Amino acid sequence: MKTCQKCSCRLPLRKFPLVNGKPQAQCSPCLNTARRLRDPLPELGRDAREVRINNTFNLWHGPVSRVLLRSHA
User: How far apart are CA 1 and CA 10, in angstroms?
Assistant: First the structure.
């Protein structure tokens, strides 16, 4: 068991990646979180068919009222 320097969790040694044969001070979940925060997700492309379906649905049904749902909450 080893304590992570970043999150202070006690984890087994297999959760600490090896660099030059030695385990790092940060655990794998901390490293993955830092990588995800550093590298943003790519933008999603617009799907013309989905946009057309959404627009058609909104023309037919209009805005959805949530007043009825609030009365039952």
Answer: 6
CB neighbours of 29 closer than 8 A, spacing ≥ 6? Answer: 7, 15
Token pair, residue 35, equals 């990588």
- The tens digit of pLDDT for each residue in 41-53 reads 888 888 999 999 9
Q: Among the residues of 5-47, which ranges form H helices?
A: 28-38
Q: Which residues of 14-23 are buried (b: 16+ CB within 10 A; e: fewer)?
A: ebbeeeeeee
Q: What is the pTM of this model?
A: 0.51
